[in-house]
Design goal:
Radius of gyration: 18 Å
Shape: elongated
Strand content: under 5%
Helix content: over 70%
Number of strands: 0
Amino acid sequence: MTPRQEAAARTRATLLESGLRLAQVVGLSALSISRIVEEAGVSKGAFFHHFPDRSSYLLALHREFHDRIRDEALKSLEGETPGAARLLKATRNYLDTCLREYGVRSLLLEARADPATAAEVRLRNSQTAELCAPDFSVLGWDHPYAAAQLWVGMAAEAALLEFDAGEKLAPLRAALARFLDAPAELIGG
């Protein structure tokens, strides 16, 4: 990468980091381009060099947030064999991150009304189901991908319920573990 490309990548990363920080304190309507560039310490021209519009920026923010969750989960699962324990560990990571990053999660939920972000959510859910399907296969499910799709939906719903409550809901997590005939402590329930 040339020095110019490295600088551009740093600017893009700074813009996304600024958005993630702002998301902790402001809602979607207050996340203006002006506020983002002020927080990032860059010009509007720099913003528009990386993102053609606010919608594209929100999509990139969504991807950044969920890429971090995925990467953190995959790292924590290194060496784990497919099955209930691995699936619950990944789900616990997802739920805990959504609670820890409450403001970001709030902003991204608001952004789901945007068609590009909604399409990204569907794609991300499908990709996550692909990652979870081997767990259901090992558990003996007849249709592992379909089971994984349902699991991803349940985990997303659990994240919404915990989001609304503003805290971890141990009975909810225990219910998720019960679907796999697994101990609740594997998911923090």
